[in-house]
C-alpha cells in the first residue's frame, strides 16, 4: 500500500464546524475557588482519585517531583504543606499521568492520515503512548516495533549519512539535566552541533541580551529578591496563566509595599487581582490587587516606553542631583553610560509616547513613582522575546536597571521568567548549537574525544536545512517540533523531506503525524513516573528560573512496562550508533544516574559535590556572578546599550498579531477548550480585535474571518476564526498558537537570536467567503 503523505494535515486547518463558543466578560482576577475546582475536574477526568491525590501530594514537595509545567521556582524554606502547585500544574499532571494508554491496536485502527485530521486537543487526549511504534516507508499505519529494532534503524540511518551534519537533533525543555547532558554528549561524539532547542523559540533573545550586557545569559534574581523589591515591572508576561505561583510571590511583594507595574497590550486577569487558592482568605474570595499601574501598551512599543522613562529619570536627576540615578554604581561598575545618556536625551518624548501608545502624562507619572526607588526587578517573558528587535528591547530593560544600580544587590535585578520546567537546565548542560571553547575543552579532557567546533543549526536553521534537503534525519527528544515552530506548511514540508523522523514522547502529537519517509515514536516516562534502572530507583534533577538545582523523583506506577527513560534511550542509542568507537561508558550511566552527575561535575562549572548537594532538601543555587554584582563581560563591566526605538508600522489594511497561550494549554498541548480569564469557553479559533479595527473592516462580533500573511510575497492563510471585540490597542490583535503558526513566516526572526517573531505577525483579516 502506498500513499501520498502530502495529504497529511499539518495544522488541522479549515475545521468543518466551530466547537460551541460561549462568551462572557473577561475576568479581572485570577485563581480563587474556580482554580481549585478546575484542578480537581481535570485530575478526575484523567485518573482515579487515589492516583490523582498521590501525584498532587508530591508535586513540588521537598522529596517529590518537579512540576513538569513551568519553571517557576519553589520557595527555599517555606513550602506549603497543602499545595505547592497551581491549577495549571494540576492540568499538566492530569495530562501526563492519565491512565489512558494507546497501544498497537489504536494505531492499527486509525491511519496516520486520519489522525492528522483531528485537532490538537483530540490528538493529545488519545492517551499516553504505551510502546515503541514504527511507520515504514509508504506505510499508512504505525506498526509495533521492538526497542532493539528501533535503535537498529536509527543507527543504520545515522551511520549511513554523508556527514553527521545531515542529522538534526531537537530538544524540548522537559528533559532532565542528566538526560540533556548525555544527549549533547552523544550528539557531539556522533560529530555535529546541530542541536536545536525550544529555547531557540523562547528566551534565546534574553540569554544573548543578558550575556552581552551583564555577562550571564540567565536572570540575576531569586524569589527573595521579589519579596524585597521596592518596585517590580512585569513586561510581556501573563503569570496568571503561565506562571500562576508567581502571583503568590507578587502578593507577598505587595504586602511588603512593592510598587507593581504591568505592561501588556491585554488586560490580563492575573496581573490585575489575585485570590489565593492556598489561603483561607483566598478561598473565601478575598482579592488582592496585583498591579498599581497597568499600561496597555501597543505591541512592540516596549523599547519606546522604556526610553521615555529613562529620559524622565535624566530630567528628575537634574532636579534632584545624586538622588535618582546611582552615580557610584554607574561610575564604578558600568560602561557606555555617556553614549546612552546622549542618545536618550536626544529622543523626542512625544514621538516615544506615540510609538508605545501610552499618554505622556501617564509615562511621566510612572517615572515619577519610580524615581526614588533603587531596588527594582524587571520580569519578562514572550511579549519581549518574540519580536525582531527583542535583543535590543531587553537591553533597554537592562539600561533602566543599570541607571538605578538595580542589579547585584538584594531586591533588584533581571528576571526573565523561563518557560519549560527545565529549559534553563538544558542550556546549562550544554545543549546549544553554538559552540563554546570551555565546554569543548572540558569534554575532550574528560572523555578523550575531540568534539566538533563548527556551530550547528538552531531551530529555524534546522527547518530551512531540512527544507533544502541538507538535513536528512530529525530526532526530537520531547516536544512537538512541527506545531511549535513557525510557518507550519513550510516546516511540514521540511520534515516530510527527511529520510527518518524520530520522536521521544509521552503523548501523541502532530509531529508524529507529519513525518519523514520512515518514522519512529519512542515512548518515555514523564516526571511523575517512578524510574527504575536495573531494578534500582533513580532520581533526576532540574534547574528553575532562579538557577536552583533540585532533585525530582516521580511516585506513580508507569502506565506501561515498555517505556524507557530518556536517559536509557540516549545511552542505548549511543551504544548502537557509535559501537566500539565510543569513548563514553554509556552502560554505566544507564545503570546509575549518580555516575552521570559525577561527570557533569567534571565538565560543567558550578556543580561541585553535585551528588551531595542535589540531595539537600531545597537543592542548591548555581553560581551567578551578576547576582553578586560581578559582570563577566569582555570589559568586566555592566554595559549600557544604545538602540533606536523602532516599532512596528502597519499599513491601513494590516494588523499586528500576537500569538498567545490560552489558560487551557501548555504550548502545543491543549488541555481544554476554555480560556476562562479572557471569557472564552469551548472554542480556540478566535481573534481578539479592537472594536475600531472591526468597524473599519465592517466586522461584527462573531463574524467568521480568514487571516492572511504575505511576508516575502508568500501567501499564508489560516481560515475560519471568530471575531471577538476585546480591549487591545488599535492595530493590534491576538490569536492562540499553535493554530496560527501557519502565519508566522519562517524567515521573520529576531535580529541576532533567530527566534520566530511570534508576537509580531503582520496580518490582513478578511471575511470568510464560504
Ligand atoms: N499553563 C501554561 N504554563 C506555561 C506555558 C503554557 O503554555 N501553559 N508555557 C510555558 C512556556 S514554554 C513559556 S515560554 C512561558 C510563556 O509565558 P508568557 O510569555 O506569559 O506566555 P504568552 O501567552 O506567550 O504571553 C505573553 C504575554 O505577553 C503579552 N504581549 C504580547 N506582545 C507583547 C508586546 O509587544 N509587549 C508587551 N509588553 N507584552 C506583549 C501578551 O499579551 C501576553 O500576556 O510559559 C510557560 N508556562
Ligand atoms: N506562535 C507561537 N509559537 C510558539 C510560541 C508562541 O508564543 N507563539 N512559543 C514558543 C515557545 S516559548 C516554546 S518553549 C515552544 C515549545 O515547543 P515544544 O517544547 O517543542 O512543544 P511542547 O508543546 O511543549 O511539547 C509537547 C510534547 O512534548 C512531549 N512531552 C511531554 N512531556 C514529556 C517528557 O517528559 N519527555 C518527553 N520526551 N516528551 C514529553 C509530549 O509528547 C507533548 O506532545 O513553542 C514555541 N512556539
Ligand atoms: Mo517557552
UniProtKB/TrEMBL annotation:
Gene Ontology molecular functions: 4 iron, 4 sulfur cluster binding; formate dehydrogenase (NAD+) activity; molybdenum ion binding; molybdopterin cofactor binding
Amino acid composition bias (Polar residues), ranges on this chain: 7-17
A GO biological-process term: cellular respiration
Keyword terms: Iron, Iron-sulfur, Metal-binding
Pfam families assigned: Molybdopterin, Molydop_binding
Molybdopterin oxidoreductase domain segment(s): 128-504
Region (Disordered): 1-20
Domain of life: Bacteria
Gene Ontology CC entries for this record: membrane
UniProt xrefs under SUPFAM superfamilies: ADC-like, Formate dehydrogenase/DMSO reductase, domains 1-3
Keyword Secreted: no
Domain Molybdopterin dinucleotide-binding: 655-760
NCBIfam families: Fdhalpha-like (TIGR01701)
Protein name: Oxidoreductase alpha (Molybdopterin) subunit
Lineage, highest ranks first: Bacteria, Pseudomonadati, Bacteroidota, Flavobacteriia, Flavobacteriales
Amino acid at each position: 500500500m502506498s500513499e501520498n503523505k502530502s495529504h497529511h494535515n499539518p495544522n488541522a486547518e479549515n475545521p468543518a464546524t466551530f466547537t460551541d463558543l460561549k462568551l462572557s466578560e473577561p475576568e479581572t482576577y485570577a485563581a480563587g475557588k474556580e482554580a481549585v475546582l478546575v484542578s480537581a475536574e481535570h485530575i478526575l477526568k484523567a485518573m482515579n482519585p487515589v492516583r490523582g491525590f498521590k501525584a498532587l501530594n508530591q508535586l513540588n514537595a521537598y522529596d517529590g517531583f518537579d512540576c513538569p509545567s513551568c519553571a517557576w521556582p519553589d520557595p527555599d524554606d517555606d513550602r506549603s504543606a497543602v499545595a505547592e502547585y497551581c491549577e495549571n500544574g494540576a492540568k499538566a499532571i492530569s495530562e501526563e499521568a492519565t491512565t489512558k494508554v494507546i497501544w498497537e491496536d489504536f494505531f492499527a485502527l486509525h491511519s496516520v492520515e486520519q489522525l492528522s485530521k483531528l485537532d490538537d486537543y483530540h490528538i493529545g487526549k488519545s492517551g499516553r503512548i504505551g510502546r515503541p511504534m514504527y511507520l515504514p516507508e509508504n506505510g499508512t499505519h504505525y506498526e509495533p516495533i521492538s526497542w532493539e529494532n528501533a535503535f537498529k534503524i536509527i543507527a543504520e540511518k545515522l551511520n549511513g549519512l554523508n556527514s553527521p551534519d545531515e542529522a538534526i537533533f531537537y530538544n524540548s525543555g522537559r528533559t532532565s539535566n542528566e538526560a540533556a547532558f548525555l544527549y549533547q554528549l552523544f550528539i557531539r561524539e556522533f560529530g555535529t552541533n546541530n542541536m536545536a532547542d525550544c529555547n531557540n523559540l523562547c528566551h534565546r533573545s534574553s540569554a544573548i541580551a543578558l550575556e552581552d550586557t551583564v555577562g550571564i545569559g540567565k536572570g540575576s534574581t531569586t524569589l527573595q529578591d521579589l519579596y524585597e523589591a521596592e518596585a517590580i515591572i512585569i513586561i510581556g508576561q501573563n503569570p496568571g496563566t503561565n506562571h500562576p505561583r508567581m502571583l503568590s510571590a507578587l502578593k507577598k511583594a505587595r504586602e511588603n509595599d512593592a510598587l507593581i507595574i504591568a505592561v501588556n497590550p491585554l488586560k490580563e486577569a492575573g496581573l490585575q487581582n489575585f485570590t489565593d487558592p492556598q489561603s483561607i482568605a483566598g478561598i473565601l474570595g478575598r482579592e488582592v490587587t496585583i498591579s498599581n499601574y497597568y499600561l496597555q501598551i501597543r505591541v512592540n512599543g516596549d523599547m519606546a516606553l522604556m526610553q521615555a522613562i529613562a529620559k524622565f529619570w535624566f530630567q528628575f536627576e537634574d532636579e534632584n542631583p545624586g538622588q535618582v540615578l546611582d552615580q557610584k554604581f554607574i561610575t564604578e561598575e558600568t560602561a557606555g553610560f555617556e553614549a546612552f545618556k546622549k542618545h536618550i536625551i536626544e529622543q523626542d518624548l512625544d514621538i516615544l509616547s506615540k510609538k508605545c501608545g501610552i499618554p505622556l502624562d501617564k509615562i511621566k507619572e510612572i517615572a515619577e513613582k519610580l524615581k526614588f526607588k533603587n531596588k527594582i526587578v524587571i520580569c519578562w517573558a514572550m511579549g519581549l522575546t518574540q519580536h525582531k528587535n527583542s535583543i535590543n528591547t531587553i537591553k533597554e530593560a537592562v539600561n533602566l536597571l543599570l541607571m538605578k544600580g538595580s542589579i547585584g544587590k538584594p531586591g533588584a535585578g533581571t528576571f526573565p521568567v523561563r518557560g519549560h520546567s527545565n529549559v534553563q537546565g538544558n542550556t546549562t548542560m550544554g545543549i546549544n548549537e553554538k559552540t563554546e571553547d570551555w565546554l569543548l575543552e572540558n569534554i575532550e579532557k574528560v572523555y578523550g574525544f575531540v568534539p566538533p567546533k563548527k556551530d550547528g543549526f538552531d531551530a529555524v536553521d534546522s527547518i530551512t536545512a531540512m527544507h533544502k534537503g541538507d538535513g536528512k534525519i530529525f530526532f526530537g527528544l520531547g516536544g512537538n517540533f512541527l506545531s511549535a515552530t513557525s510557518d507550519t506548511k513550510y516546516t511540514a514540508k521540511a520534515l516530510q523531506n527527511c529520510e527518518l523522523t524520530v520522536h521521544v514522547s509521552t503523548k501523541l502529537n502532530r509531529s508524529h503525524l507529519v513525518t519523514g519517509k520512515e518514522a519512529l515514536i519512542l515512548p518515555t516516562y514523564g516526571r511523575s513516573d517512578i524510574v527504575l534502572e536495573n531494578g534500582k530507583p533513580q532520581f533526576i534533577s532540574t534547574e528553575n528560573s532562579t538557577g536552583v538545582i533540585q532533585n525530582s523523583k516521580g511516585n506513580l506506577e508507569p502506565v506501561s512496562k515498555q517505556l524507557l527513560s530518556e536517559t536509557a534511550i540516549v545511552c542505548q542509542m549511543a551504544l548502537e550508533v557509535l559501537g566500539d568507537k565510543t569513548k563514553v561508558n554509556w552502560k554505566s550511566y544507564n545503570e546509575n544516574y549518580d555516575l552521570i552527575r559525577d561527570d557533569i561535575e567534571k565538565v560543567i562549572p558550578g556543580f561541585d559535590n553535585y551528588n551531595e548537594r542535589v540531595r539537600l532538601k531545597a537543592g542548591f543555587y548555581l553560581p551567578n556572578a551578576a547576582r553578586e554584582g560581578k559582570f563577566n563581560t569582555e570589559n568586566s563591566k555592566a554595559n549600557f546599550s544604545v538602540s533606536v526605538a523602532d516599532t512596528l508600522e502597519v499599513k491601513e489594511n494590516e494588523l499586528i498579531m500576537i500569538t498567545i497561550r490560552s489558560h487551557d494549554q501548555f504550548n502545543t498541548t491543549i488541555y481544554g477548550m476554555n480560556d476562562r480569564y479572557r471569557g472564552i469557553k469551548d472554542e480556540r479559533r478566535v481573534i481578539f480585535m479592537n472594536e475600531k479595527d472591526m468597524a473599519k473592516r465592517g466586522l461584527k462580533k462573531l463574524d467568521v474571518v480568514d487571516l492572511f500573511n504575505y511576508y516575502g510575497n508568500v501567501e499564508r492563510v489560516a481560515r475560519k476564526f471568530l471575531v471577538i471585540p476585546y480591549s487591545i490597542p488599535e492595530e493590534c490583535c491576538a490569536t492562540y498558537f499553535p493554530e496560527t503558526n501557519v502565519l508566522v513566516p519562517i524567515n521573520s526572526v529576531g535580529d541576532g537570536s533567530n527566534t520566530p517573531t511570534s508576537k509580531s505577525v503582520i496580518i490582513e483579516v478578511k471575511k470568510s467567503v464560504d
